[in-house]
Amino acid sequence: MVPQNAGRLGQWVHAQRVHYKKFKKGEQSQMTAEKALKLSEIGFCFDAGDRFRGSRTSRQQDAEEVQVPIPEVPPTLGGSFY
Question: Which among 65, 30, 35, 59 is positioned nearest to 47, based on CA atoms?
Fold first, then answer.
């Protein structure tokens, strides 16, 4: 989790969450389904409160709301660690 007061990264994370909320409401936003998918694929948490409420993971919920498939296992980058 990145707090809002964590400098430029915190500001960027906050902006992504704001844009995503607007996108879900159908309002004008810089967020697109493709951006939301890419952020979800890397484990971005659109609703920081979900981490503390014990509900389904934000990643699963966001994928369902955007209506794009999110793989359970991230793709490998080639090769093996063994």
Answer: 59
| Residue 41 domain-assigned (yes or no) | yes
What does pTM read for this prediction?
A: 0.58
Distance in angstroms (rounded) separating the CA atoms of residues 13 and 17:
6
User: Is residue 61 assigned to a domain?
Assistant: yes
Inside any domain, residue 15: yes
Chain segment 18-70, per-residue pLDDT in tens: 999 999 999 999 999 999 999 988 888 888 776 555 555 555 555 555 555 55
Rg, the chain, Cα only: 14
Strand locations in the chain (E): none
d(CA 14, CA 46) in angstroms, rounded, equals: 9
Containing domain of residue 40, as a range?
A: 7-66
